[in-house]
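User: Good morning. I'm curious how phosphoric acid mono(formamide)ester would be positioned relative to this chain. Could you predict the structure with it bound?
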Amino acid sequence: MSPGIQLTEQGNLRHLLTIEGLSSETLLNILDTAESFITLGRREIKKVPLLRGRTVVNLFFEASTRTRTTFEIAAKRLSADVINLNPTHSSTSKGETLLDTVRTLEAMHTDLFCVRHPESGAPHLIARNVPDHVHIINAGDGRHAHPTQALLDMFTIRAHKGEFRNLRVAVVGDVLHSRVARSQIHALSTLGVAEIRVVGPRTLLPREIERLGVRVFTEMDEGLRDVDVIMMLRVQRERMDGAQIPSEQEYFNLYGLTEERLALADSGAIVMHPGPINRGLEIDSAVADGERSVILAQVTYGIAIRMAVMAIILGGSEPRRSRLPDA
Ligand code: CP
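Assistant: Good morning! Here's the predicted structure, ligand included:
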């Protein structure tokens, strides 16, 4: 999928569909912009008028707690009008196509769609079919990409560990089914992390993953040794055909993050997880709730990151020149 569609001729962000192909300047600009929104969350009045008069539609065709809610909070803090469309209660349940649903909402003067979809490429399809004044943010598509998750993860790493250049980072678990892992690896690589490791059973690692410039470890203890950041992944049982993990207990025995395994990492290592977490499967509760865990900080930073992405995309866009009749 071409990342070229994401940028305007001037190199500004028009859509956010994937991390792949974005420059380190673009990624750092998003992180720096998010930094300015962090203090807003601590104020009594948590709003700025940057997107007053703009309309944001959350179009989520797949379950979500963190991403959908933080997109909504982010848009509201920027003073946009926000609509959450529930596909089970919309006309897609009567057979309306994805593009017809988008065109219908576009006719209501929507400026920005945040799209989650079980099919890889659905946000790209929409982006190729909307006029210039309409913008798309990928909120997670199939196994392909979850760019705002990767950005909030990078924000979390920078907030806790500082510079990216000297870090050893391990991405651990079900890499095969994970859109989060793909986006994280592209972001870590673009930001110049010293060493990116992927750790997991061969059955849950994509073939030729080494081509992304990562070191592969199938032994958990070896993969965690001396790392600065551990990025755990959810075991995606709903995407498995049944044969990819032996049993949940055995998976936990071999790849679950316990306090004993965490002790192999650097003494200042942080533990991340995009959520939702499976306690007792990929992570032990003592680690998930422990002092090295930054899992809930990731959620909070997600608001600032999504505010930054929306502000950058809509802040740089021309006022609407609708091909539609006035209303
Ligand atoms: N990390 C993440 O995408 O979580 P949700 O599915 O709850 O949005």
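The chain has two domains: 3-144+300-315, 147-298. The pocket of phosphoric acid mono(formamide)ester is lined by residues 64-67, 140, 149, 274-276 (CB under 6 Å).
Let me know if you'd like a different ligand tried.
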